[in-house]
Amino acid sequence: MRALVRETHVEPSQFILPLFVCPGEGVRREIGSMPDNYQLSIDELVKECVEVNALGIGGVILFGLPETKDEMASGAYDDNGIVQRAIRAVRRETPELLVVTDVCNCEYTSHGHCGYIIDGDVDNDTTLQWLAKSALSHARAGAHMVAPSDMMDGRVWAIRQALDANGYEKIPVMSYAAKFASVFYGPFREAAESTPQFGDRRSYQMDPANGREAMREIEQDLQEGADIIMVKPALAYLDLIRQARDRFDVPIAAYQVSGEYAMIVAAARNGWIDQERAMLETLTSITRAGASIILTYFAKAAARVLG
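and the corresponding structure tokens:
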């Protein structure tokens, strides 16, 4: 009876699993602060994507760990870069699996910031050129969708223009539209090896106190051509997911980030909570708030439970 009258339904098809691709062969290196998540070489990544596809999960989003980093983030937009090669490999093996790519520079810069540095700060306009080139290289490699996460002003417009001018009008943009300067990103920075070498990202990521500004950021990205908008993190910003759902008639994504995942797993391993129930309860809350797409490190575990 409870299942029959349930108001909110969570399905594996609405999940996107974040994956970290690294150089080498046969590499499956567990991330210490994110148990059951791994840095994967391309051959291992392909195996993971075969399993993801079999579980009925909606797709994957790829983050790259390049062999070398430099001040110009050149690995991000190299047509033979780590993510570009991974896209081609995954598309060959699982052509029906949705492949999304994170478009940012922090994993590729020697300093760990999201763009070109001038006088100790990120230069917005130069960074837009890198982002547009990265998105275009991902599309050429076969990505189904690109997801800019840098929070530079005007990045959606720059990416949309580059894609359209090169014949990729049908590649959608999922924008990290309301991405906050959050404490919950810590484990991700271990996973992606992208910790800033100086300062922090508060000059371009949003103040967690500013909900009205988040709505303006979302509206701006939609005006620039975003097809899907994202709120990140998810659990501390459920109110903004709901506001976005009520205000904008587009698909809403939410990112259950690394720190949210790590807290649940750590508490469960200490015997303080039931991991499966906490996983499903939080995913249900994100869906109930209004997100139809959830990026989550629980994607595989939840898909197995949900069937």
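(Above: one complete record from the training split.) The mean pLDDT is 93.
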